[in-house]
Amino acid sequence: MSTPHVVVVMGVAGTGKTTIGHLLAARLGVPYAEGDDFHPQANIAKMSAGTPLGDDDRWPWLDAIGAWAHGRAGLGGVVSCSALKRSYRDRLRAAAPGVVFVHLTGDRALIENRMSHRQGHFMPTALLDSQFATLQPLQPDEAGVAVDVAGSPEEITERAVTALAGLPDTA
Question: Which ranges in 72-138 belong to alpha helices (H)?
Answer without folding.
Answer: 86-95, 108-116, 128-134
